[in-house]
Amino acid sequence: MSAKILWVEDDPDDVLLIGRAIRKAGLEPPALVRDGREAVAYLSGAEPYTDRRVHPFPSLILLDLKLPRMSGFELLQWIREHEEISRTPVVMFTSSRERSDIDQAYRLGANAYLLKSVDHDHLVETLRRLRAFWLELNLHPSEPSREIILQQAKP
Question: Which residue segment(s) compose the domain that 27 sits in?
Fold first, then answer.
């Protein structure tokens, strides 16, 4: 099975614009969830994401910072606190250039911090490089056991 991206993004404009760039960059369509709580359900394999053939565990998580119901920071902390999920690479993919946001993301265990470019060509190139490194060159950890995740996942 090919590598799967879980994209956590709530802004409909970003979903549309970045979605186009994702296709142009040659990435498989990511699994899209709109807030942190939905991401917890996806990662946990809880309803409605129980069927891993339809909703495969991601090889990479693209995570926005400003999300409803559970911020990107809160979700990142939740991921890193759950042993079976904690090995999954998380790339913060956000518009914030704030030094405090960058530092906090790395403090909580982000693997990378990328800016959403407003320039379409630059955005496509960023996504091509992301694909090349994280999905083609990088070796991924084993997929976690769904039963263990469900036992650990108490958001």
Answer: 5-152
